[in-house]
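@channel anyone free to eyeball this complex?
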Amino acid sequence: MELTHENVLGKIISKFGEENIQDAYNPDGIMTFTTNRDTIIDLIQYLHSDEELQIRFLTTLCGIHYPDQKDKELCVMYQLHSLRHNYRLRIKVFFPIADPVMPTLTGVYATANWMERETFDFYGVIFTGHPNLTRILNIEEMEYHPMLKQYPLEDLTREDKIDTFFGR
Amino acid sequence: MSNSNNDIKLVDAPDGVSGAGFFATSFEKVIGLARKHSLWPLPFATSCCGIEYMATMGSNYDISRFGSERPSFSPRQADILMVMGTIAKKMGPVVKQVYEQMAEPRWVIAVGACASSGGIFDTYSVLQGIDRVVPVDVYVPGCPPRPEQILDGLMRVQDLAANESLRRRNSPEYQALLASYNIQ
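replying in thread with the prediction:
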C-alpha cells in the first residue's frame, strides 16, 4: 500500500484509540503526533512489526524542554523511518518536569541505549528499564542537566566576561 | 651572494669577570642562558590556535630560531606546555596529567582566548581557562593569535627562564602554588 499520512494515522488510531493519539499535524512534511507514556513503547513495537508499515528504523530520540508549558515541561521526541517505503514519522510524548520518567525503548531498538543516555544526561529524563543509565557526554561530576532552560549562560564566578564583550 | 657569516647572531655573554684564559660568572646566569635558548615546547593543540602554532613552526616564522627546535610531543624533556585551543571540562584532567608528567623547570603558555579564559564558549562543557587546572606563566591573547604573538609569548617565557632563580622551584611560595592546584 501507498503510505500516506491519512493511511498511517488511520491505522495507528484504529489500533490504539483516539484517546491515545492526539494533535496530528504536518509541520514540515513529516507527520507528527502526540501520544502518552503508556502507549509509546507498544506503538513503536507495532510500527516495527506491522507488515504493511515496516517502520523499522529509529532515526533519533531526544529530549525537549518547554519551560512555559504547565505540566508538559518535558518532552521526548522520537523520529522513525520506514526504509522500505521511505516514510518518516515523528512522535512526541509530554510529561511534567516533576515526574521525569519514561519507559525505555532499548527493548525494541538497541540504538536507543545511547540516545536515552544522552537525554538523561542533558534533560534528566529517567528511563525505567534502561540497562546502563549513566552520563554519556558530560563529566560525571556534573550536578545538573545543562540543556534545561533554567541556567544563566554566564559563568558567574568571573568578571572578565560581561555582556558588552559578547554583543549581548 | 651575501656574506652569510654576518647573518649569524650570537648570544651575548652574561656579566662576569674575564681575564687571560678564564671567564667567571654565576651558575644562575649560565644555566638561565642555556635554558632560555633551548626551550622545548610540548604543543597541546586542540583547535584553531593549534593550526596557528603549526604556522609558527613553519619556515616563515620558524619557532626553531628561538631554540624550540624540537616540539616534544611527550612530556619527557619538554620545558613549556603550550595549550592551544578550547579545553573542554573532560579534557581538563588530561592537561593536568600532562603537566604533572613534565619535569621541573616547566612553564605554561595559554595560547588564545579559549585556553586563557574559555573564550566565546561560555558554556557548561568548556573549562573557563586552563588556570583552573594548571598554573599559567604567560597568556597569549587573540582569537586566534597570529604566529608573531605566539613567538612573543615564547619570548616572554625566555625572559622568565633567563632571570629565574635556581632556587625558585624549591621556594615555599612555589610549593604553595602547586599545592593550591593539588599537584604533588
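from a first look: The beta strands of chain A are 22-25, 31-35, 57-65, 74-82, 87-95, 101-103, 126-128.
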